[in-house]
Amino acid sequence: MNAKRFVPAIMFVLILIAGGSAFADECLDCHKDPAFKVQHPKLFNYYEEFDTSVHGVAGLSCVDCHGGDARTRDLDKAHVDVLKPVKFDQIHVTCGQCHTEQRDAFVTSNHFRILEEDGTAPNCATCHGAMEMDFIFVTRVKSTCLFCHNEESGVLPAVPGKADYVLNKINIIKGYRSFVDTHGKDRELVAELNQAYDKLTADWHEFDLVNVEKDTEKLLGAYRKAKAQAVKDRKK
């Protein structure tokens, strides 16, 4: 898909995998029941986080990620294999059903290799959250990187600072992008810049910070130029 928003407006044109909006959603009806808040508070909290998330707002259902059967109130039938798609080493497969470019980049990364080998590397939920599916926040990513990449471990301790730097630059690009998307008269250029932005935010998931920094600086320069031209055009 092409319209993915990253920091902090990743996101994405979402596909309803299971067509959850076409029928009564017994999953959500059950989990949002006020009685559930008392009986199963943790699961009720999951519902509240999901309901206001980008996925909830887009109209997805529990079954779109978890599987199961949203058409039945039978507890066993509704929950068949619902945990399998969200096992730590399967998250990228589940998310990748919609976020294909991010998944394809991630599976080329050292993080994925380590995840496959011993399960200690991050997955999608490590940075984006689980039910709430946060947009990427720079501070969250930096603090997450520090768990492994620090002076004590000696494992590429410069990574958190570099990630912080690049993500802040991408945030700046995002601001320029909003202006250019709205006011840029050269729509062909706007489309090209959007494609480059989508590629950049997908390529981030390779975690090749050297190359992604170069691409970020290049795109930032292009957006600055495009914004300056858009400002001139508005004054004409």
Could you explain how this protein is built, in words?
Helix content is 59%, strand content 0%. The protein has 236 residues and is an all-alpha fold. The protein has two domains: 1-127, no CATH class; 137-235, no CATH class. Helix 11 packs antiparallel against helix 12 (159-183). Mean pLDDT is 86; it is low at 1-22.
Any descriptors?
single chain, mainly alpha, disordered N terminus
Based on CA inertia axes, which overall geometry fits? globular
What is the H-and-E element order?
HHHHHHHHHHHHHH
User: What value does the Rg take, in angstroms?
Assistant: 20 Å
Number of helices: 14
Question: What would you say about this model in short?
Answer:
This protein is mainly α and 236 residues long.
List the helices and strands and how they pair.
Elements (H helix, E strand, L loop, with lengths): L25 H6 L2 H6 L1 H11 L2 H4 L4 H5 L8 H4 L12 H5 L4 H7 L3 H9 L5 H5 L9 H8 L13 H25 L3 H17 L5 H27 L1
Helix pairs in contact: 8-13, 11-12, 12-13, 12-14, 13-14
